[in-house]
């Protein structure tokens, strides 16, 4: 490798990563519309820059905050200051978007819609990355990261509850179907979590069984691998025909909710996709327990069960949790497709939105999905770190 | 041939190499010995600018090594490293041909050179030319690594623990090969090792490095006879010094007149080897021959007196 | 170099699958008897609004175009961020890649429609964006973590940075890069299926049409063809990876 020390000293005054993010924020503010205005929910949109979308002195305040955030991100400021700047930028962005929506919306018009524009999304993207970058530089403990997530969720909930954003088009869509939204949100979370739980209940014992039989293990992993490569829509499709047949011909099956269309194929498909990561990571986790450790447990007179519960499982846990993390994030994304086969979930809004060309409706389904997947990822990363930490103690 | 002129290298505030000056003459084998972290590898890597000095300069044949672009400089300097660093996706012949083909030699000349080097390292060209590195034993990989370093007939060869990964018997063979090749081409060699025995065996000059400083730089005999610091003495191993001394001198200088029983030993045999021959064959004295003619004898008593300590 | 034998007992099921798929696509009507029991009220057992072969080729063309574009961009990006000038952007690129991975493909697809309208373009964009991540990550790993000694030796032999990249780093990273392309292509195949919800004419059209009209035969044949394509695509790339791994001097990597 050549000499990074030389290059670093030359750029000592600015932070290259921060400068890139700051440039995105500046471009978003100066050259991209903060808000989009539509005469009705499916009409083409018209952009409004920050200084057109905000009332009174707010554009100036917005500009000053943007300039400060940009300056702090460019400089080699310490991580705490960068974090403060990025969070201030995010909160400012939230306030500006809410205020812009109220200001732009023609009074009394039931059909006009105001949504955040490309500028707002770009700024959100860059400021979120800056926040994440600052948090990484702070080297937060796992519990610290969960606390940060809780604070972020609290701020988001505060914005939603305060009514500041209620003029935004996405929340208009929500307002007109809040009951359905909450129901589908639960269905979505339920599908993702319960298919995962079922996969853990089946997969972990299956893995422990396969661990002992090498030939069976190879065959099973190969089969699960093939299953994993089958696209979700195809797998849903392949399940519908047999399930429809069972629902129609096996007595009592229909009463249990087994039918070609609905929750059953979605649940089974998600369960099938979850098996490979769970089984694979469990086998890997157990293989990582050293032979010496096992011998030590035997030598101390542990029974097979005691050895499993007190030695092997705790040591394999971090690796198993990595599999669980992959599955949960993947399931939250895949559950969207359940909307296609009548399985419900937030995909219902995504596909309704696509068929009505209503972007806001798509967002109503997509944004909570992304937020859930993201939060699940952070929580599990922290859990994995915690379980590893116990190991080294 | 190679001059280090007050060379230092800092990592942060910590000096890895501190103010080292030394001169390696043409055709010499300079061996740099030190523990890990002593700065010996950093010193070596500054010659072909894998590491740039923080201060000082290095002259090769009187020219500052920064006058050429780094890649052009490196094509003129052979470099062999521990673990050999062969390209796993290229055949043995392609590996050896790396620098010649970078230099634009024509195919005929390259292939002749590859075969010549393979033969030099006792590897049958027809058998080994098209093998992949993973099909070779550790010792063979090591030899290909050195052959690659020598391919473009560089006047200078740098070696970083080149024999570190080999088992003792193969290592000894590889060291003999290196000495033979050095004699054949007259290459100037700088070799880095942590093994003082290897240094004494190979070096025409030995430099000892400790915490970034060059604490002694001299011919092997002088290092053994008068270690500059306790650190050098500890590297030599207190009890082994006598043996080191014996192995650095030949019996020729202590031949006395007289008869002795049994087969004669050659005059250029080391004193150490002569002593062990005398013990093994249970002879108080051995006849010494030069050019096929017995010219005198050495006695065990005399050998033991030499081994008792520096004169 | 002995090329990997294309026919071994282990590959027999894959070959059989390939033959079945080609037979079905060539003359789907011949199989209508198999699908007829799944239809009701005398509905057609085989999808005919567009020829299945056309949909398959279109589907594969979309996948190929999206994956090719993603490969060029991701490999280029990975090379740029591993050169000295780009090193400080490595954390940013990693962060974007990580966030991208939590983004469900359907969401990418749905959110591209407002910008590019209905048709194949949003699908292509989603394929491209979602295909970037696996290729970028594997290329990065391949360029930075493989054979550090060989890379050092390349520098010490006097290769310029470009020569080292072309002659040593990229050839050694090729098997890993191919595994990234395989992941991307398999994901792209799935995303292209969903792409028919935004009017890309792919095999997803057959499944959706079946769902809308309650014709389980359509749903099943669409699912079967897509599943077969996915398995064959995956196997094909695994074969390529095994060959590339052998070329890169790693005989232990299994195919």
Explain this structure:
With 393 residues, chain A is mainly alpha-helical. Chain A is built from 16 helices and three strands. Chain A has a three-stranded antiparallel beta sheet. In chain A, helix 12 (263-287) runs antiparallel to helix 14 (304-338) and helix 15 runs antiparallel to helix 16. Chain A is flat. Mean pLDDT of chain A is 85; it is low at 1-11. In chain B, the strands form three sheets. In chain B, strands 6-7-8-3-9-10 form a six-stranded mixed beta sheet, sandwiched between helices. The two termini of chain B are 33 Å apart. In chain B, strand 7, helix 8 (168-185) and strand 8 form a beta-alpha-beta unit. With 311 residues, chain B is of the alpha/beta class. Chain C has one domain: MetI-like (MetI-like fold). In chain C, 73% of the residues lie in helices and 0% in strands. The longest helix of chain C is centred in the C-terminal third of the chain and has 34 residues, at 161-194. Chains in contact: A-B, A-C, B-C.
- Oligomerization category of the chains in this entry: heterotrimer
Share of residues in helices of chain B: 25-40%
Q: Please state how the strands of the largest beta sheet of chain B are arranged side by side.
A: 6-7-8-3-9-10
Radius of gyration of chain B: 22 Å
CATH architecture of the largest domain in chain B: 3-Layer(aba) Sandwich
Strand content of chain B: 15-25%
Uncertain segments of chain A are 1-11
SS field, number of helical segments of chain B: 14
Helical fraction of chain A equals: over 70%
Termini Cα gap of chain B: 33 Å
- Structural shape of chain B: globular
**CATH class descriptor of the largest domain in chain A:** Mainly Alpha
Largest pleated sheet of chain B: 6 strands, mixed
In the sheet with the most strands of chain A, the strands line up as 2-1-3
For the largest interface in this structure, which chains are involved and how many residues does each contribute?
A: A-C, 55 and 49 residues
Q: Averaged pLDDT of chain B, please?
A: 88
Class from helix and strand fractions of chain A:
mainly alpha
């Amino acid at each position: 490798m050549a000499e990074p020390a030389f290059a670093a000293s030359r750029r000592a005054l600015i932070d290259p990563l921060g400068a890139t993010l700051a440039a995105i924020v500046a471009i978003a503010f100066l050259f991209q519309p903060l808000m989009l205005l539509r005469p009705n929910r499916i009409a083409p949109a018209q952009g409004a820059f920050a200084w057109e979308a905000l009332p009174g002195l707010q554009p100036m305040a917005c500009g000053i905050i943007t300039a400060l955030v940009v300056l702090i991100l460019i400089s080699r400021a310490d991580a705490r200051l960068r974090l403060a700047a990025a969070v201030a930028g995010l909160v400012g962005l939230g306030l500006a978007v809410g205020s812009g929506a109220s200001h732009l919306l023609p009074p009394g018009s039931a059909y006009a819609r105001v949504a955040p524009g490309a500028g707002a999304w770009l700024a959100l993207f860059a400021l979120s990355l800056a926040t994440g970058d600052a948090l990484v530089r702070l080297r937060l403990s796992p519990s610290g990261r969960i606390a940060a997530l809780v604070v972020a969720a609290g701020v988001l909930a505060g914005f939603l509850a305060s009514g500041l954003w209620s003029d935004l088009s996405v929340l208009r869509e929500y307002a007109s179907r809040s009951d359905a939204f909450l129901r589908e949100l639960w269905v979505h979370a339920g599908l993702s979590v319960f298919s995962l739980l079922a996969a853990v209940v089946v997969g972990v014992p299956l893995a422990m069984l396969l661990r002992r039989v090498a030939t069976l293990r190879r065959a099973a992993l190969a089969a699960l691998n093939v299953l994993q490569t089958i696209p979700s829509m195809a797998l849903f499709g392949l399940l519908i025909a047999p399930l429809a047949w069972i629902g129609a011909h096996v007595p009592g099956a229909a009463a249990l909710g087994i039918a070609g269309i609905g929750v059953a194929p979605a649940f089974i498909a998600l369960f099938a996709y979850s098996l490979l990561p769970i089984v694979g990571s469990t086998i890997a986790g157990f293989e990582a327990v050293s032979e010496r450790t096992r011998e030590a447990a035997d030598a101390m007179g542990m029974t097979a069960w005691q050895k499993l519960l007190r030695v092997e499982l705790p040591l394999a846990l971090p690796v198993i949790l990595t599999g669980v993390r992959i599955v949960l994030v993947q399931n939250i994304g895949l559950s969207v497709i359940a909307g296609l086969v009548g399985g419900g979930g937030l995909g219902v809004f995504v596909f309704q939105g696509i068929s009505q060309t209503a972007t806001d409706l798509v967002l109503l389904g997509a944004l909570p999905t992304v937020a859930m997947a993201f939060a699940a990822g952070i929580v599990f990363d922290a859990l994995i770190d915690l379980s590893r930490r116990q190991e080294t103690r | 041939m190679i001059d280090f002129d007050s060379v230092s290298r800092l990592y942060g505030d910590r000096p890895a190499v501190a103010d080292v000056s030394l001169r390696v003459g043409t055709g010499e084998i300079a061996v740099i010995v030190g523990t890990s972290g002593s700065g010996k590898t950093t010193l070596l890597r500054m010659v072909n600018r894998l590491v740039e000095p923080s201060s000082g300069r290095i002259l090769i044949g009187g020219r500052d090594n920064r006058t050429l672009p780094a890649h052009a400089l490196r094509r003129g300097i052979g470099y062999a490293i521990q673990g050999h660093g062969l390209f796993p996706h290229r055949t043995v012949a392609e590996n050896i041909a790396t620098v010649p083909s970078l230099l634009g030699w024509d195919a005929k000349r390259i292939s002749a050179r590859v075969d010549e080097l393979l033969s030099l390292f006792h590897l049958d060209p027809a058998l080994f030319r098209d093998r992949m590195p993973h099909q070779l034993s550790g010792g063979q990989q090591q030899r290909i690594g050195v052959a690659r370093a020598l391919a473009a007939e560089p006047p200078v060869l740098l070696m970083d623990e080149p024999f570190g990964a080999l088992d003792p018997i193969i290592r000894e063979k590889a060291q003999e090969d290196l000495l033979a090749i050095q004699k054949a081409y007259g290459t100037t060699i700088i070799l880095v090792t942590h093994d003082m025995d290897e240094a004494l065996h190979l070096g025409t000059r030995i430099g000892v490095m400790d915490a970034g400083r060059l604490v002694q730089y001299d011919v092997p005999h002088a290092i053994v006879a008068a270690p500059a610091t306790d650190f050098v003495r500890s590297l030599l191993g207190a009890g082994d010094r006598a043996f080191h001394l014996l192995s650095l001198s030949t019996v020729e200088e202590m031949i006395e007149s007289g008869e002795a029983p049994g087969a004669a030993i050659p005059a250029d045999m080391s004193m150490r080897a002569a002593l062990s021959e005398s013990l093994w064959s249970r002879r108080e004295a051995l006849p010494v021959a030069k050019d096929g003619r017995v010219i005198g004898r050495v006695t065990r008593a005399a050998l033991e007196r030499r081994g008792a300590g520096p004169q | 170099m002995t090329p990997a034998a294309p026919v071994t007992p282990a590959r027999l099921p894959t070959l059989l699958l390939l033959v079945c798929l080609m037979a079905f696509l060539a003359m789907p009507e011949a199989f209508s008897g198999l699908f007829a029991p799944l239809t009701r009220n005398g509905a057609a057992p085989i999808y005919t609004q567009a020829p299945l072969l056309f949909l398959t080729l279109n589907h594969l063309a979309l996948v190929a175009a999206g994956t090719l574009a993603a490969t060029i961009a991701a490999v280029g990006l990975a090379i740029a961020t591993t050169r000295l000038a780009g090193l400080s952007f490595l954390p940013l690129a990693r962060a974007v890649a990580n966030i991208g991975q939590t983004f469900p493909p359907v969401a990418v697809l749905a959110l591209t429609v407002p910008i590019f309208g209905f048709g194949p373009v949003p699908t292509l964009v989603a394929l491209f964006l979602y295909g970037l991540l696996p290729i970028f990550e594997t290329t990065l790993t391949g360029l930075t973590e493989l054979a550090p000694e060989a890379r050092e030796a390349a520098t010490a032999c006097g290769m310029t940075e470009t020569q080292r990249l072309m002659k040593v780093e990229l050839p050694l990273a090729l098997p890993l890069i191919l595994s990234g392309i395989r992941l991307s292509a398999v994901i792209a195949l799935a995303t292209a299926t969903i792409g028919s919800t935004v009017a890309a004419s792919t095999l997803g059209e057959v499944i959706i049409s079946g769902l809308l009209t309650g014709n389980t035969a359509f749903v099943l044949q669409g699912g079967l063809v897509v599943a077969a394509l996915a398995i064959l695509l995956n196997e094909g790339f695994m074969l390529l990876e095994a060959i590339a791994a052998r070329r890169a001097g790693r005989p232990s990597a299994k195919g």
